[in-house]
Amino acid sequence: MRYLVLSDIHSNIDAFNSVLSFFKRKKYNKILFLGDLVGYAAAPNQVVEKFRSLKNVLYVRGNHDKVCSGIEKGNHFNDKAKAAALWTMKKLTRNNLNFLKKMPQGPLEVNNDILIAHGSPINEDFYIFSDFDAYQIFMQTNHFITFIGHTHLPIVYEFDGEDVNGFFLRDRMVIKLDRKKRYIINPGSVGQPRDRDPRASAIIYDSKLDKIYAYRINYNINKAFDRIVKERLPIHLAIRLGYGV
Q1: What CDD domains does this protein map onto (predicted)?
Q2: Domain locations in the chain?
């Protein structure tokens, strides 16, 4: 089975379309989505509608999906994120709003080997930023792979039963997984990368070969920038796209 693993699209239809177009040339059987369809950028309805049209998708909600649909108030958001979330809630159609409200809370077990979550399988809002953070999750789970999003950083945490080794994924990297170890893997963000590479980020996992294939995909950042400016969302949200921060 080949899985396309995506996370954190954040209303960036230009990045999302480019990613889907790129992976038409790659073979995969199923999509795993790790949350945050919306928030930050300026095309929430287009993203949700495109996502709803896809087939063979397993998914969980993200923290922005909760706030933008009104499940939570976003009191922990910074001013820019909250402004974008309130704007998104007003812009969403009723059908798309209801879809977000019904997105399942993680974690979700794909099979005996694979678990998906937004922040972590213990707490969907928890950020895994370090080897120590990952170690805490390994101590409370037993799946071969846990796919997570939330930090917007493409990274692999490898656990040999004693120590955790974290390393970033770069474009066109191929990682052979070891069945004697366990992994927490973040594919990075489609719509708002934060590893100083502005290209959209996604991975393929081949469960037969136990290999991870990392990809960065170019998209029209200027178009995404202009959408944000046109809707008078915080300019910072547009500027950061070009820097990948």
Answers
A1: MPP_superfamily
A2: 2-243
DSSP letter string, 44-104: HHHHHHHHHH-SSEEE---HHHHHHTTSS--TTS-HHHHHHHHHHHHHS-HHHHHHHHTSP
SS3 state of residue 146:
strand
Per-residue pLDDT reduced to its tens digit, 94-134: 999 999 999 999 999 999 999 999 999 999 999 999 999 99
Alpha carbon distance 107, 147 (integer Å):
10
Query: Under CATH, what is the fold of the domain 2-243?
Result: Purple Acid Phosphatase; chain A, domain 2 (3.60.21)
Task: Return the residue matching tokens 């909600």.
Answer: 61
Please identify which residue in the block is written with the tokens 């080949």.
2
Q: How do residues 187-223 score in pLDDT, each as one tens digit?
A: 999 999 999 999 999 999 999 999 999 999 999 999 9
